[in-house]
Amino acid sequence: MPPIDSVLVDFDGTACLHDVAEHLLIEFGDPAWPELDAAWERGELDSRRVITAQAAMLDAPLERLLAYALEHCPVDPTFPPFVRWLGELGVPVTLVSDGFGFYIRPILRAAGLGDLRVVTNTWSPNGAARIAFGNGHAECIGCGTCKMNAVLDARHRGAVAFVGEGSSDRYGALYADVAFAKDRLVDIATADGVPFLPWETFDDVRNGLEDLEAIPGPTGRERCPGWRTP
């Protein structure tokens, strides 16, 4: 039995093989959308403004966006067996995403994982697309969905593992008891001094958890180092 009581997993590029939001923006968005991502990476814009602006760029009905996502963006084939393995051990899995949010549950249902808990932003189209940030921090506007809070909320069960790959996963990794990182998150975790286990598939994550004898514990400070107030 791994010494972990819950597992939090990023969605775009992690549980899902692709960054769904990016695929939708490439297919249906304004060609200027990468400029917003670049401004966010430089710290010039907070995630909420970026997500809201990019959502407004999508020039297609929700049904068409969803159909495209379902056709082109399946979950990682190693993710469902990983979830089932943890379910047999009584360890819950939660998807934590700072994306558009609307496509996550349909993609999970298509993979037979419709019962998984999802923490993300809320898509509320009414004419132009609107995004609500009900899972954001009450004070910090750096992120839409606060992955630090998601980890801290999960800690009531005990030790938390976090699995991610991108910049938005930084604070999930910082506050988790054990972090799994690939792609961009590897450089971020290294710079932040976060001990992590590398992964490519969820078979790697399972092997890492099975081999885990002790958990490193969180390295995040009391307040998120990306703290921003309105």
Task: Please describe what this structure looks like.
- With 230 residues, the chain is α/β, with parallel strands linked by helices.
- It has a domain at 6-16 and 75-211: Rossmann fold (3-Layer(aba) Sandwich), CATH 3.40.50.1000.
- It is built from eleven helices and eight strands.
- The chain has helices spanning 11-15, 20-28, 33-41, 47-57, 62-72, 79-88, 104-110, 147-154, 170-175, 184-192, 202-211; strands at 6-9, 93-96, 117-119, 122-123, 131-132, 160-164, 178-181, 196-198.
- The protein has a six-stranded parallel beta sheet with strand order 3-2-1-6-7-8. A two-stranded antiparallel ribbon has the order 4-5.
- A hairpin with a 7-residue loop joins strand 4 and strand 5 (131-132).
- Helix 2 (20-28) packs across helix 5 and helix 3 (33-41) packs antiparallel against helix 4.
List the defining traits of the structure above.
Rossmann fold, 11 helices, six-stranded parallel sheet, alpha/beta, about 230 residues
Compile the SSE list and pairings:
Blueprint: E1 6-9, H1 11-15, H2 20-28, H3 33-41, H4 47-57, H5 62-72, H6 79-88, E2 93-96, H7 104-110, E3 117-119, E4 122-123, E5 131-132, H8 147-154, E6 160-164, H9 170-175, E7 178-181, H10 184-192, E8 196-198, H11 202-211
Parallel strand pairs: 1-2, 1-6, 2-3, 6-7, 7-8
Antiparallel strand pairs: 4-5
Helix pairs in contact: 2-5, 3-4
